[in-house]
Structures are given as C-alpha cells and as structure tokens.
UniProtKB/TrEMBL annotation:
One of its GO terms (biological process) is response to endoplasmic reticulum stress. GO terms for cellular component: endoplasmic reticulum lumen. The chain crosses the membrane at residues 193-217. Residues 8-154 form the Thioredoxin domain. InterPro entries: Thioredoxin-like_sf, Thioredoxin_domain. SUPFAM superfamilies: Thioredoxin-like. PROSITE patterns: THIOREDOXIN_2. It comes from Babesia ovata. Residues 1-19 form the signal peptide. This is Disulfide-isomerase domain-containing protein. GO terms for molecular function: isomerase activity; protein-disulfide reductase activity. Gene3D superfamilies: Glutaredoxin (3.40.30.10). It comes from the Eukaryota.
C-alpha cells in the first residue's frame, strides 16, 4: 500500500510539473515580441515603400515603436526557419523599441513574398527609409543578427523597396503563373509519354526478336519410312 501511494505521489508531481511547463510555454507564446505580418497589414504597419512611419502603433493587443523593420520570410515546413526561431525571438526582445522584428509566412501571404522576390527560406530583409538590405551573413545567431540590424546593414548594397502589387499586377502575375504551370505540366506529361512509348516499342522489338530466334532455331523432325514398312509387309505374309 505504501509503495502504491509513493508511485501515485510521483505521478501527481510529474503531472504538476508538466502542467506548469505547458502554462509557461503558453505565456511565452502570448508574450512574443515578434510582430506577425500578412498581406493585409504589411504596408499599413511597415510603410516600407515610403519609409514614413512616425510615432507608435499597435498590432493586436501589443504596442510597438516606430523605426526600421527586420522581416523574416519563412515557410512552415522550412527546418532552417524553425531552427532559428529561438534566436529570432531573443533578437526581437533585445531590439524592442529600436528595430521592429517581424515574421511573414510566405505561404499564407504570397503577394508580399512575390513583391520582394522571395525564392528561398528563410530570407531576412532589413527595411529602413524606403531601402531594403538582404542579410547574407551566414550565421543566424542573435549576436550576428543584432549587429546587422543595428549597424552592419549599412555596409551592404541596398535597393529600393518594391512598390506594392496592384490588383492588375496580381491578376497578371496569376495569369503568368498559370501559364508557366500549364507549360511545366505539359512538358512533364509529354516527356513521360515519350519515354513510356519508346520503352514499350523497344521492349516489343526485343520480345519479337527473341521469339523469332527461338522459332528459327528449332530442329526439324526427320521422316521415318524404312523399317516399319518392311515389318508390316512381313506380317501380312
């Protein structure tokens, strides 16, 4: 009975610790300093094209100060994006009030991703005063990212922030993407059909040649007309 009580007490303590850990994790998520950007709020919050953001602003139930933006374009399935998430969160806390650190899910906000020409994940872009600086430092530690966002970005080549896509631009891009996808499917299907047809023809020729060789190499059966005739004649006598 005492052993059962001891085991029950250990299980209760373990469950209490697990519940506390889950609660801490939930609080940690709610208190995240990383701003979530989307197609609908990107330009409104960042004013990336003009760089004219002034004063403080609110995002959800949290307030943020104005200033440059350091945006991570990511995809949910990207392992490198998940691996750098803790460093990105620490960066957001360290630079809070100086640089706005943000996330943008490119799979859910394709218009902004296409606007900035995102080709791989994660892509880190620092935006300040209508100019953009792409981080290519290699290491994605909090220290290296903080150094880039506070000073080292000035040593890299900047380009003008692309203008937001218009409705016509989105429509044209959609049509171009559709045509390219149709061309890709056609190319893949045609190549597959050509390969299968060629293989089938070659296999048929090989099987036909093998059958011809077998039939032609089969020896002819000799005719027997000698002794059986004499034997049958003697039997008649």
């Amino acid at each position: 009975m005492k052993a059962f009580s001891a085991i029950f007490a250990c299980l209760a303590a373990a469950l209490a610790v697990s519940a506390e850990s889950v609660s801490d994790l939930h609080v940690e998520t709610d208190a995240s300093s990383v701003i979530q950007l989307t197609d609908s709020n990107f330009e409104k919050l960042t004013q990336a094209t003009t760089g004219s953001t002034t004063g403080a602003f609110s995002s959800g139930n949290r307030s943020h100060t104005a200033g440059p933006w350091f945006v991570k374009f990511y995809a949910p399935w990207c392992s490198h994006c998940r691996h750098m998430a803790p460093a990105w969160e620490r960066l957001a806390r360290e630079l809070k009030g100086v640089v706005n650190v943000a996330d943008l899910d490119a799979t859910r906000s394709p218009n902004v991703a296409k606007r900035f020409g995102i080709k791989g994940y994660p892509t880190l872009i620092f935006i300040d005063k209508g100019r953009m600086y792409v981080y290519k430092g290699g290491e994605r530690t909090t220290e290296r990212l903080a150094a880039f966002a506070t000073s080292e970005y000035q040593k890299t080549i900047s380009t003008a922030v692309p203008a937001p896509l218009t409705y016509l631009g989105v429509l044209v891009d959609f049509m171009i993407t559709g045509v390219q996808e149709a061309q890709r499917i056609y190319d893949v299907a045609f190549r597959g059909f050509f390969v299968v047809s060629s293989f089938s023809l070659l296999l048929g020729l090989v099987i036909g040649m093998i059958c011809c060789v077998i039939l032609l190499s089969k020896p002819a059966t000799p005719a027997t007309v000698g002794k059986p005739t004499k034997i049958s004649a003697r039997k008649q006598d």
